Amino acid sequence: MKESHGEGLATHTDPESCVGGREAGGEALTGARTGQPLSDEMKSSGTPTLLTEAEGNTGGGARREPSWGPAPSKTLRTCGNSLNGNREVPEVPSLDGRDGRSGKAGSHTPDAYASGKSDGCIVPGKPPNKGRVNLSAEAVEGRRPTKGNTLQTAAPRTLGRKNASNGLQRMREAARKDKNARFTALLHHITQETLRESFHALRRQAAPGVDGLTCEQYQVDLGDRLKDLHDRVHGGSYRALPSRRVYIPKSDGRRRPLGIAALEDKIVQHAVSQVLSCIYEEDFLGFSYGFRPGRGAHDALDALSVGLKSKKVNWVLDADIQGFFDTIDHEWMVRFVEHRVADPRIIRLVRKWLRVGVSEDGTWSGAEVGTPQGAIISPLLANVYLHYVLDQWAHHWRRSASGDVIIVRYADDFVLGFQHRHDAERFLSDLKARLEQFGLALHPGKTRLIEFGRFAADNRRKRGEGRPEAFDFLGFTHCCAKTRIRKRFHIQRRTVKERLRAFLAKVKATLRKRMHDPIIEVGSWLQRVVLGYYRYHAVSGNSYALNTLRQEIAWYWLKMLRRRGQKQRMNWKTFSPIVKRWIPVPKVMHPYPNERFYAKHPR
């Protein structure tokens, strides 16, 4: 017997080669062994059997006969292999008059109790319009697929599909059903295909680590490199390299330390984070928004705005953990991961990435606490750490409060709203003690308890204290305001002034360097930069800051163009069309917070 495989289907030259597969497939689908005689009840009743359903015949439908060639057999052939599943297809005549399949048949499950339906993979015997001369022409036209199995979840076609594999889906379902389950075997989900997907998910322009490898260099002989990396990870010989220390400026003038991991460390960290996310995404609470799939900064801003307006909030606690990524305790971190992960190989990888240390100016330094801010695995580990330290504790604490309490957290920056001041003060005191147990502390300059809400302006006016204070969260300053017409309570969101100044300083510095570049090149660059700024900051009520940004950039660009030559100085009349062409006018790009929030979270 000779078999030739094409796209998962076996083409058999010997008609008896499918006997064993036919018996196994019939038993799997019907629950009875193939060849068992049908009962008299099934023969006489109108209920369709598996054989009649596969032939396209039902109790209430007319029998379909091909208009040409010999009559097809009613015996099902189950052909295929163990990787692609068994295929059940009726024997239909081929174009040259021989018995066989006229085309490829997809995998299907016949509905034995459907009335008047036939499976979409059954091909009617319709001859081609071009006659029997050209056998390469399209032979038949298939019918539309059946509606019987539309409610079933389609399995991923290959491991390279964007959706999680079947194993990860089952793991996610198990984590959802049992919140105390511990997963003992996870490393087998890190396959070569998973590593390949993780490599392609990396940013191509990302800075290299201590190994100096870029994505373009690593892509040469990518298959061999990933196979070697896969073998080292599963064989226990994988060694993580220290992160390369770099600093980026912050809006307050300080510098933020970042750790850039080596390229292979990025690939493995991304693959492991995808596996662990399937577990912890079922555990994370709803008010956690930072570094989670399907959630972003604007989702957190919408939730905060809706909570402040819909709940009885009179006091706001704006809190920030001081040096959070640099003060994470390694032992507590591992213990928190072990709550759900019992695979020692995954735990060993997490320990390696925590203790690998950093390399700064060629000098290596170990890490006793903290996780590199900038590593791919760090956001997930940070969410796991704060889930057990803050989220679960705060969710349990607010049940004992005497009034309403709202919580919105994005990474290590979080905001809470309280109805009563004594609840807010008690929570702040308990929070400091709670964080101290795990080696954390609140930032004294960024943690404030302020009076904020729909009655804050009236209460402060009665006490002669002026307007309510504002607080900053995720790049926006939140202020108490009222609508123009109905004078209802409203949350005014404006770009933080310090961040606006820092952004303008960067743009002006670049314009100074590109003073002598062509106007088209500079204008195209400015258009991309300004539109990117609008995509985040163009919310309702922030038009003043956006117009200020556009005006400042236009005036400074004109100033640079005037310095290019002294014979003909450009005036505003000549420059105005250039501004209209290259610097877009600001417009709102985000819906109102309540509209987007209730669209994603319907009541």
From TrEMBL:
InterPro entries: DNA/RNA_pol_sf, Group_II_RT_mat, GrpII_Intron_Splice-Mob/Def, RT_dom
Protein's UniProt keywords contain Membrane: no
Broad class of enzyme this protein falls into: transferase
Region entry Disordered, spans: 1-133
Alphabetical UniProt keywords: Nucleotidyltransferase, RNA-directed DNA polymerase, Transferase
One MF annotation (Gene Ontology) recorded for this entry: RNA-directed DNA polymerase activity
Residue intervals of the Reverse transcriptase domain: 229-478
Tree of life domain: Bacteria
Enzyme Commission designation: 2.7.7.49
Family: Belongs to the bacterial reverse transcriptase family.
Protein name in the entry: Group II intron reverse transcriptase/maturase
Protein source organism: Oceanidesulfovibrio indonesiensis
Compositionally biased region (Polar residues): 75-85
